[in-house]
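Co-fold these.
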Amino acid sequence: MAADRFAARRQKLLHGLKGTGADALLVTNFTNVTYLTGFSGDDSFLLVSKAATVLISDGRYTTQIGKECPGLDRCIRSQKESTIAATAGVICQARVQKLGVESESLTVAEHEKLAAALKSQTLIPVAGAVEELRLIKDAEELVEIRKAVRQAEKGFEVLRAELRGELSELEVANNLEYSMRQFGARGASFPPIIAVGARAALPHARPTSCRISEADFVLIDWGASATSGYKSDLTRVLVTGKISPKLEKLYRVVLNAQLAGIAAIRLGVRCCDVDAAARRVVDEAGFGKHFNHGLGHGVGLDIHEGLRFNAVSTEELKPGMIMTVEPGVYFEGWGGVRIEDDVLVTRTGCEVLTSTPKEFEQSIIQ
Amino acid sequence: MAADRFAARRQKLLHGLKGTGADALLVTNFTNVTYLTGFSGDDSFLLVSKAATVLISDGRYTTQIGKECPGLDRCIRSQKESTIAATAGVICQARVQKLGVESESLTVAEHEKLAAALKSQTLIPVAGAVEELRLIKDAEELVEIRKAVRQAEKGFEVLRAELRGELSELEVANNLEYSMRQFGARGASFPPIIAVGARAALPHARPTSCRISEADFVLIDWGASATSGYKSDLTRVLVTGKISPKLEKLYRVVLNAQLAGIAAIRLGVRCCDVDAAARRVVDEAGFGKHFNHGLGHGVGLDIHEGLRFNAVSTEELKPGMIMTVEPGVYFEGWGGVRIEDDVLVTRTGCEVLTSTPKEFEQSIIQ
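Predicted complex below.
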């Protein structure tokens, strides 16, 4: 069953290659290799051609490949052979002539070495062929992302229940990742951002020894990675002290912007229009220049993948896409508010996959 | 002080570029950017030329760059501008003509876009220029790696003290990472391998729900990443049940091989000769073909960096290099033994940075 699913993806990939001039693709992005085979290791390439599909790996992974990819042809290189040399051998044996290479993954040096090892073949740079397939999540992928959402949300429930003033950002982050793993996550989908007060103005703040009690609110941006590698991504702000009018005002603006963004999501809508729908709310409240990043991004095996909600993307939404919606408003020295959910585009509109409460009243810790 | 250190590294880099034909280097490997600036974020490039050093980043990082890299010139691209477009602008402004690019990091697609954006400049692929500098750790780096070693070893002490039969590999891994963070680590330097019994034969085993009590020993391969990003990497086997003669025999062979490898480490020795010194012990015990990987690798900001101890590397050791020494012997279906320490090459020999006990008797949990 599972093997069939991966084979079907590879069939689609070959179909998508028509028009590129390539009759095979060397997949060098490890996440794309996982997507096409179910193999969860690193350092391995995959050749996909009409005649042959071969995973090129090394001895550390022999047993794992047998378990994860039953029936898949493999070339286990020896310790003395480089991956590129082994790959060149596989390509020659498969009689590939026009080899597509993943131009967004293959480095200039790898390209050079591969070209030198292959005498008669032509290398054709191909961009985004596997990523194009990954845009639309199938039923199994959706199951995995729902798992990652649940692991993240269960972890957050524990965080919320345990939160107290003397905990540092570092301790909260550590506890959160620990809890998500207890609920079955492989780990956090990215290092959690736990940003107290003014630190919430740093969109990529690293946790510090700053304590929760040092300000009136804390921004938490986190997610889980399921064991399959599929990821979730959320943000909430919790009010841990005095409820300032400024915080409440910004919170309501950001939440309204987020709801407006979500309301704009349906098939056929352009990404820039979803971004604009949310941005308009922030602009009208007078905080436009304090919303200094895009509205969201695709999420799946990578925490950032596929489309972007921003001012310039004219790509259109399709059913099966999963996007974050995460407007934010920031003031240096004061802090910021961001609210983020994961949203599935459906045939009739969209479904918000995350359900952690986000009303202002619900963000207040008594 | 710190800024001076990074400036000195960039000076060395420029010096090292002589002979490549390039008069500047575009640093696109994010770890190399960190090494040369102290900036700990992602998605940013660095131009290093005689006339100018410019960090090309985006609005998420403005405040962080100000704190981490005081005095460093920066170009914060707008939301509508791509990193490549912003980079091209910086290169033109710096009047670079022969631009070195990191060929082991820049992708084929990025190279294509950069070449298209730059009309009159020549792009020169340069391999390993920053990595060459990173081979030799300076005093500050050594301090950081010692921290990462201590965090890993303190975490392991907790693991050892808490170990009991009903814990699963997943729980042990989660507890270990939690403990290392409590001792100040940013996190694990890689997902810890906790492999019970037969699973120890998989060099890259992922933790499962298998319980410690399901076999007589467990292999633990772990490390910490200090907040600076510097890493440690260790492996120990703990005997948790019956002491089988086979386990004891293999353990002693692997330990002797490891000690022989460490004894061979001194400046001027070739990497392949260190590998051979350890492998000889395993070969003579009759287990040669069960030692199916290299003896070790450099460690620093990346968990695998720099040199490799293997059969083919003729590179010579120099003072300031830090290498793992980790022979292993594996039997599919039975399990395996690997013992790993981190070793600094010194002017007079070497120093083992790790001190977690490794005698067979010390590996037995009563």
